């Protein structure tokens, strides 16, 4: 049981959960992870060391850089389960979900199964609103990438005669909620994917690990 407790202990820090979310988007260096999480490199390295020791991530060296990735796609399922338990049983989480997320988007999100069917029929445009480097590391098939901070400047590139499905890092990634709100206010027909890229990939659904021709948006 002590080994199970070690994994649970590694998850018991907000910064580590955040780092796992970023690692789940694709392989990353400690510098990149530290910058994305707003941590010093030393602090990020310590948290990553704890996650690696617990078997949640692995690493490899590329020149002078150390790159981190999830040890197993099952880690995504572990994070989903953790989120679901908190949603159902922690009053503060329920208040946040209903107070912020449902207020930003009260419509039922599109499930993975629904999206697969719509993609096969060519009925939707997929919009990835994550930063470009995360899109390059992996994304849904035929998705277009417009990072949230660039969305207002690229509305003309989006169709008004087809439903748009926006997605980002996970079920409660604020990027997709903000994108849906912005696009609906501009008259677009848009909904969110229920999950994000990591859950889609972990389910064994098709992804692309190299970009098609993404625009050179600033980060």
Task: Describe the protein.
The chain contains 10 helices and 9 strands. It folds into 2 domains: 2-72, Arc Repressor Mutant, subunit A; 93-208, Rhodanese-like domain (Oxidized Rhodanese, domain 1), CATH 3.40.250.10. It has a 4-stranded parallel beta sheet, with helices on both faces. The chain has a 3-stranded antiparallel beta sheet with strand order 1-3-2. It is an alpha/beta fold and 219 residues long. Mean pLDDT is 90; it is low at 211-219. The longest helix is centred in the middle third of the chain and has 16 residues, at 74-89. It has helices at residues 2-11, 14-23, 30-37, 41-53, 74-89, 91-104, 112-120, 132-137, 174-185, 197-202; strands spanning 28-29, 57-62, 65-70, 124-128, 139-140, 144-145, 163-167, 190-192, 207-208. Helices cover 47% and strands 15% of the residues.
Summarize it.
47% of the residues lie in helices and 15% in strands.
